[in-house]
Each structure stands twice: as structure tokens, then as C-alpha cells.
Amino acid sequence: MIRFIFSDLRRLWAGSLVVVLLVALATALGVCVVLQERALRLGSARAADKFDLVIGAGGSETQLVLSSVFLQPSPLPLMPGDVLARLAADPRVDWAAPIGFGDSFSGYPIVGTTVTLAENLSGGFAEGRIFAREGEAVIGSAVKLPLGAEIKPMHGVAEEGGETHTELVYHVAGRLRPTGTAWDRAILVPIQAVWHIHGLGAEEHEGEAGHDHEHEGAGHDVHEHHGEIDPDAVIDEKWAADAPGLPAILVKPKTIADAYKLRQEYRSGNTVAVFPGEVLTNLYGTLGDAKQILVAVAAGAQALVAASLVLVTVIHIGQRRRQIGALRAFGAPRGAIFGIVWLEFFFLVVVGIGLGFTFGYAAALTLSGMFSQTSGIAMPVGFAREDAGLAAVLLLFATILAALPAVLAYRQSPAQALRA
């Protein structure tokens, strides 16, 4: 029987190929949606795990996390610089790192921060060393620049007609190990260099504090106040109460209890403190709704494919009536005819499902790779246990669908088939 089936499939290869491709494409759509949504969840969750607590000025918690953790460019209000001084002196804080952003170079975001954050971000250096002077920079693992390369910061991005700063040229001193986060595509420079290049500093901040709060990033929309920069100036990370305004501070509490106490304390007044994981949970709710829509679209496509396969099946059985009649006339029992037709169609649908999982996995890998290249966030694509349930449902669907042509063939009498 098996040899007969394969012989029949070779003879009807064109129709068989159509059935396989229809099933494969419909299956691939659903598989790609599931794998891509899971990869986005895992990738963003792992990226957020690097940071315990984020403190910023009052405003959107979601935007605060997107800007500080995922480095998505967006204007953020500034909080007073004395917040950083209080956190640095707080015994509940292991370390607190200010960040300032808004500048870029060759499409890579330039982030002003501290030695402490740069050293703790990836667990070490792939090459080179930490920045020690205002004119030095550390790059993420995905930044395509060699050690010693010159970096000329541009305010904003080139696509928006950003202005290139001429006061300071950074030189790459080291490259961090991969983190699987957006910070792999970041250029890290001393926060004090970011302040100075935008004309901000302790000596002038007192008179500009109110004005700075209307601006974004590290206060560098005030680019008409460029300062004089000494690239060889030694980094000073002793924070004073009159430090320039900041869009965000990344905090590493000493204990979990300290983290909750700090979060509660800095959620009042003119600051907001968030756990990135909590914010992502809310985003996942939105993603879940979007996933349901995409799954519904995939299910609709699969239903259309099923309807098409039913039509193809009816036509296919009509074309094979004489063959089926001849088999019955030579003594083949109805059960054998049912088994032959069912096995043929079931085999084609199963092959299509297998190819669909392969195509869906390949598509998810491609999309995740493209997203990772632009965002720096590692997107792990892989199957999970629950995917076995999807495969089981599709196999059950194949079993039922294959029974339709088998029943049609089973009900034909030899006389009717041979007269056709």
C-alpha cells in the first residue's frame, strides 16, 4: 500500500505540491507570530534585568523605562541634581549612576554616565579599558568602531538635521562585553563631559535649574551655551547638590527590601521610581492584545486554506473516480480505498505542517535578527513546551481534513466510478 501511495503522489506531484505549500504557508504564519512575540518578551525582560530601579522626573513611567533602559530617543523632563547627591550618600544604595542622552554618532546613541555603571554593565571589557578622562569613551560590543577611533558627537540624529559639537572629540578607550541589551549599541562617555559640552555645570546650574526642567535629555537642548572642554580633564564623580538636572538615574539597591523602600520614597514629590519589570508587565498586556489579533488573523488564514484544501480535495477525488472504481472492481475493499486516500492526504498535510514550522522558525529568526541589529536587544527565538500543543492541534486538524476525501472515495461504488 505504501509503495502505491508514493507512486500515486509522484504521478500527481503538481497537485500534491500545491497542497503542501498551502498548508506550509498557513502554518508558518501562526508559528512566526507565536515565536516572534515570545522572543520579544524574553529579549526585553532580559534587557530589563540589568537594572533594578530607575528614578526620573514625574511623567510617563513607560517612557522613562524605554528611554533609560532601551535607549529609545524621546524628550524627558529633568529632575533636580540634588536627587543624585542624596542617592549617592544613601546607605541603602550600592551605586547610583546618572545618565544623560540626546547626542549620537553614526546612528549610535551617546550616553553620558559613570565609571561605575560602565564597569557593572557587562561584567568586564572585551578589549581596552574604562574611560578615565573627559575626552575618552567606552563603546558597546555592537558598535563598529576600533579602539582609538574619533567620535564627534552630534546633537540629536543626522536624519533630523542635528548639529555636530565641535568643542570635544571623544576617543574610544575600551569595548564592553556583549550584554544582549540596547546598551550594546551605545557609546558611553563621562556624564561630566556631557554636562560641560552643553554648557552645564555646578557653577551655572543654580541660575538655570528652572529653565533646564523644560528641556530633554541631559539638559543638552540648551546647545547655545556650549562650554569649553578639556579632553584631558580627570573625571570627578563626587556628586554635589547643585549638579545639573538629570533625565534618569539607574540605581542598584543593596537589598530587595531597600529597593522597595527607595521606590516608595522616590515616588512622591517631583520624582518617580519604577521597577523596569513592572513597567514591562503592563507593556506585555498590550502585546498580548496585539498577539491575540495576529493569532486571529493567522487562524483566519488557516481557515481559508482549509476551505481551499476542501475544494481541491473534491476536485481531486472527482478526477480520480476512474482509478478508484478500477481498484474497487479488482476487489479492493472499501476500507483499503479509505486508507489509501486518507494516508495520501494526511501525509501531504503533515509534510506541510512540518515545513510550516520550519518556515515560521526561519522567518522569526530573520525578523529577530533585524530587530536585534537595530535595537541591540538579543531576541532569543526557540520553541517551548506549549508549542507541542499547537503541533498536536494541527495534526488533529490534518487527521480530520484527510478524512474528507477518504469518505468521498469510500462512498463511491465501482459502477458509478467507472461510468464517470
SSE layout and pairing:
Elements: H1 2-11, H2 13-48, E1 53-57, H3 61-68, H4 82-89, E2 93-105, E3 108-113, H5 115-121, E4 125-128, E5 136-139, E6 150-151, E7 154-155, E8 163-164, E9 170-176, E10 187-190, H6 191-197, H7 202-212, E11 248-253, H8 256-265, E12 271-274, H9 276-319, H10 321-329, H11 334-375, H12 386-411, H13 414-419
Helix pairs in contact: 1-11, 2-9, 2-11, 9-12, 11-12
The end-to-end span amounts to 25 Å
Taking all Cα atoms into account, the compactness measure Rg is: 31 Å
How big a fraction of the residues is strand?
5-15%
Strand-pairing-aware structural class: alpha+beta
Largest sheet: 12 strands, mixed
Order of helices and strands: HHEHHEEHEEEEEEEHHEHEHHHHH
What is the strand tally?
12
Task: Describe this structure as you would to a colleague.
The structure is a single chain. By secondary structure, this protein is of the alpha+beta class. 53% of the residues lie in helices and 14% in strands. Strands 1, 2, 3, 4, 5, 6, 7, 8, 9, 10, 11 and 12 form a 12-stranded mixed β-sheet that branches. 40% of the residues are buried. Residues 202-227 have low confidence and may be disordered.
Short recap of the structure:
With 420 residues, this protein is of the alpha+beta class.
Can you tag this structure with a few keywords?
alpha+beta; twelve-stranded mixed β-sheet; 14% strand
